[in-house]
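HUMAN: Can I see a protein plus its fold?

ASSISTANT:
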Amino acid sequence: MPPRFWLRPEARFLPVLLSPLAKVVAGCAARRQKALGWLAPVPVLCCGNLTTGGTGKTTVVLDLMARLQAQGIKVHALTRGYKGTLKGPVRVTSDHTAQDVGDEALLLAHQGPTWVGGDRAATAQAAVKSGAQCLIMDDGFQNSTLRKTLSLLVVDGAVGLGNGYVMPAGPLREEITAGLKRASAVLVIGEDQTDFLERYAEYLPPKAVYTARLETTVTDLLPNKAGPYIAFAGLGRPSKFFDGLRGGGIQLLRAIAFPDHYRYQSKDMKSLLSFAEIQNAELVTTPKDAVRLPSWFRQRVKVVNVALQWDDPSAPEKLLHTLMSKART
């Protein structure tokens, strides 16, 4: 979990104390952007963010992959494979586990061809050689080894950009203005509770600011929608999942949060099963958590999908049209 002061703009002592280190991080990030990355012969769409932690990027990538596939475009996903042991470039297969390639890579591989690798240029080259007609990056906004045709900056409306400081003084990976100027488009997911859109209006790309929300598919829990359920999740902000369930009318006996990308231990799973049995309740989690679970436990847990709902239904098509138009020119 991130330090609490990262999300509290009024907290000043620790951010100021850590500001010298933050300047070093920001300087390194700025220098990396001066590198000229590999220019792929196909469109490259990057879905990234300015902050650490989850903003919903993988859900966005899954949504856009499906739309590109519906157009008959062979799109391949590129991801670093966070928390995975394989360095890549490697194409994700059904034989891989979350320990090999990370949970996000497994989710993406369910949608379409997915590659893992820390070197984005080398991974992109492997994907293109394998027949990719379009590349979509899950994260990598700060990675300069591969040139982007279009960069979509994803922002969590609930937390915005936190306290506005660069790590370790805050959650930012780079300076705000530098990042916003590089963005081709911005997508705010959820209610804009920090007034991000108003606060940074002068730096946002004109006519390319979109909004959307995450919708929990509570119909997956029917016919026993009333519960009771015990929800657990290891995400950047597990509360988003829990709130989505409650908002859909799901009765949660308890909501149990684990760290992001958490590797569930035997004792955790046994404890969850025991608690559910005592309370005569069912366990429920996210697809991202499910791919980290062993089959013996996963089959005893209900998995609820989370989908992206664009406030303007035409927005994703506009975004993808811009992507292809830029690639042609």
